[in-house]
Amino acid sequence: MEGFGDKKIIDLTLTLTNEMNGVSITEARNLAKDGWNASTLELYSHVGTHMDAPLHFEVNSQSIDEIPVARFISKAWVVDLSHIGPSGLITVADMAPIAATIQKGESVILQTGWSKKVGTKGYRDELPRISKELALWLGEKGVGLLGVEPPSVADVNNIDEVTEIHTILMKNDILIVEGLTNLDQLSKSQVTLIATPLKILRGDGAPARVLALE
Q: What is the H or E stretch that residue 152 is in?
């Protein structure tokens, strides 16, 4: 968390490890034998902290490499949702702290504390979910990016729900970043968010490095 000018920088990115489903890191070269160290990485496109592209649900044909880079840096509002329990629905009422102030193009980060459950069954199977009414509200507000701690914005075990919520958000041109962490280190209600996915040709999504400046 070194400073950048008068800004504090917080890393909101999960560390990719071989213990994660969808990650394989193996040795490709080593210094003693080959003269340098190098690894071979095999990554599921939606592993860890990642960004979805509309192609993920074929809402439209836009792939991760086609998203304008200007959208990767934004002003973001942090909403404390630590009261939301397992499998809880996040509603428009929960947005009361920012409802009157958020502007079109700004981002929303939902702080649920869910990243503390990484590595447990509940992290994936009991995640807090974006309600349909909230997804529509975010679209009406013109939100540019939605960032959440769980690995998805909706119940991944309910194909109808996960499809509906992703589709509503993507039809409203909202970037989706899932798998955030360290949100408890944020002390401001508004930050500058930097979310940069790997540039993968025709990618349906990609792991991303996500930083907050406050």
A: none
Nearest by Cα to 114 from 43, 18, 47, 182: 182
Distance of CA 164 to the CA centre of its chain: 18
Instruction: Give the range of the structural domain holding residue 188, as residue numbers without chain letter.
Output: 3-16+45-213
pLDDT higher than threshold 90 for residue 5: no
Q: Is residue 113 part of a domain?
A: yes
Number of domains in the chain: 1
Work out the pLDDT band at 7, boundaries 50, 70, 90: confident
| Reported pTM | 0.95
Is 174 domain-assigned? Answer: yes
The 10s digit of each residue's pLDDT in 79-109 is 999 999 999 999 999 999 999 999 999 999 9
Q: Where are the beta strands (DSSP E) in the chain?
A: 3-4, 7-11, 23-29, 38-43, 50-52, 73-80, 89-90, 107-111, 129-130, 145-148, 175-178, 190-197, 205-213
Q: What is the CATH number of the domain that holds 116?
A: 3.50.30.50
* Beta bridge mates, 43: 23
